[in-house]
Hints:
The complex is a heterodimer of chains A (255) and B (421). Chain A is globular. Mean pLDDT of chain A is 84; it is low at 5-18. With 255 residues, chain A is α+β, with helices and mostly antiparallel strands. Chain A has helices at 2-21, 25-34, 121-125, 130-133, 246-251, and strands at 40-50, 55-65, 69-76, 84-88, 91-96, 101-104, 134-139, 152-159, 169-175, 180-187, 193-205, 208-218, 225-235. Chain A has a 13-stranded antiparallel beta sheet. Chain B folds into two domains: 2-50 and 274-420, no CATH class; 57-238, no CATH class. In chain B, 52% of the residues lie in helices and 21% in strands. Chain B has helices spanning 2-12, 14-54, 77-85, 129-136, 167-173, 208-211, 219-225, 245-256, 266-269, 271-309, 311-319, 324-360, 385-410, 414-420; strands spanning 57-61, 92-105, 118-127, 142-145, 161-166, 180-186, 192-203, 214-218, 234-238, 261-265, 362-370, 373-378. Chain B has a six-stranded mixed beta barrel, surrounded by four helices. A two-stranded antiparallel ribbon of chain B has the order 11-12. In chain B, strand 6 (180-186) and strand 7 (192-203) form a beta hairpin. The radius of gyration of chain B is 32 Å and the shape is elongated. The two termini of chain B are 27 Å apart. At the A-B interface, strand 5 and strand 6 of A face strand 3, strand 6 and strand 7 of B.
Amino acid sequence: MKCAAxxxxxxxxxxxxxxxxxxxxxxxxxxxxxxxxxxDSYSEMxxxxxxxxxxxxxxxxxxxxxxxxxxxxxxxxxRDAGMATLRIDDQMWNYLPNTNSTVRVPPSxxxxxxxxxxITNNDxxxxxxxxxxxxxxxxxxxxxxxxxxxxxxxxxxVPRRSTAVVWSSIVIAIRLDDLIPLWERYYxxxxxxxxxxxxxxxxxxxxxxxxxxxxxxxxxxxGNRTNIRWTSAEFDRGVGEDTxxxxxxxxxxxx
Amino acid sequence: xxxKLAWRNVFRQRRRTLLTLLTMTGGFVLSSVSIGWxxxxxxxxxxxxxxxxxxxxxxxxxxxxxxxxMYTTIDDYQAVGTxxxxxPGVRTWAPRIHAGALLAVRPAGTGAGAVFSNSAAASVTGIxxxxxxxxxxxxxxxxxxxxxxxxAADSSYSAVGRMIxxxxxxxxxxxSVGDSLVLLSQAxxxxxxxxxxxxxxxxxxGNADQDRSSCYITLSDAQLLFALEGRVHEIAVxxxxxxxxxxxxxxxxxxxxxxxxDVDSWKTFAREFYNGMKADETQLRITIFIIVLVAAMGVLNxxxxxxxxxxxxxxVMKALGTRPGFIVRMIxxxxxxxxxxxxLAGAVISxxxxxxLSRHGxxxxxxxxxxxxxxxxxxxxxxxxxxxxxxxxVLLTASxxxxxxxxKAAHTRAAKTLRTV
Lengths: 255, 421
């Protein structure tokens, strides 16, 4: 009896200390939203796509402005060099240097793969922030069956009814020290894992401390993974509006 | 003695016999023609469907049907084709490549340099123009423009290819013959697959869903574009006889031996179509059962009447010392004699009707749409089932249906009947 009381007291004193260390949930989600976003950004990256049938590595440059404009130009390999993707709001175009043509991506292809990777066109177009599009809560450690490192918190994001996404929840593990996300897991309505995104190699880049490697592993395609490594990044250095035009897309240039 | 008596009895009351014969013959002809009609129209629907696109048998890389992956290929399709040619019963075969792609067209009225903004997702089929033509008569479904022909795109990646698009897809893209379009996809080596095409023809299978998403390029072009040199995803095998398909499937399967390939009949790869057919067939079988049942009721009716009419006769027989068993056997035999006569007469009439229907068929106006495939004419067939099923039904009915009245006749009480009737 005494022991039970002791346990309860221990438990009661234990919980507040754990909760003290948790940052404010709204601030945390806002922090996640801002991690890679900025008024504008320029980055260079390497994307390695692995499938059971082939492996290939692409290098690319990417520009962004706000949450609604993105421009990506492929630099290598030679067969794909010069290909580019422009996205304004929810519209998307691809430039194909081989045929010197610009193709609009129709809505029916938005959930399709981008450049053969495990990233979909929708992922590139996505402009909804976690804060706007989701309701969120801390998950107690006990509610999560996966392995959890010490010093991390788990939050769960559930899309609002108006948010059009194919998953029904995202679970994110965040390191408490520096509030860097370690991984994100996407689940469907049946509670099955759709894909896992793992973040690693936290470095200072462009004045920010960010994970510089992101790995996407779809759950339903065994042997597939896409690894994106940022090789350089600049934030809020000023990217001109003329970057995000069809003319620039078709120029074949890299600026 | 028994047979002689029964035989004479049959012809004693001509009008009564004729009535019974008519009922039985009518039942036989109705059942027989229904079966011939059913088998014939299903046969022709299946042949029409399979000849027009899928073939009766298909060869794929192992597991392709369940998971149509670009990487599951037939690697030595020429050798497989040569092997198929040696199988008796195989009329011809057609190799194909299947892939998904994004197609885009410049809107009408915009010049060079404009964005290809009319875009749609499509499934691309690479076909061998000559083999496909002999297998499925592909060009007969080209409603505008012309058939694919070998072009520079078959050997050069940067050349402009020629493409045939489905009718509804052309509408979605707002494109017509002579327009150029861009295809964007991914090759089997992971690289991008993009090429410019000129639309050389518009194709219509009659199935709007299929025509909304399908386009065709030459096999060599597809192999180059998708980095699948020498490989295909599918070989459609054509035969003229639907009856040998199952045996032929096993034979080809055995022939493929070591190769990691699946060989399936249309019942597997066109499962939905097959199940639809099965469901319809069950319905028709029930209808035929009802027809047979009605005929049986008629037979029962006439035999019952006959027995009632002849009560006096049976009374006399009983009075003369005939055993009840003899009377039962006599009546059943009479019914069977009439059954056999009806089967003979019915067979002659059915053959005539079925022969006519198998030559001329019935023109469907308006044509019926079965799962997207349009049929204009229903043709009957003549097979053993057209004869033995109704014959069995008539004879079984004649025997069983005549037993209760026969029993009734056998138990006629001689004295009472002779006095009252």
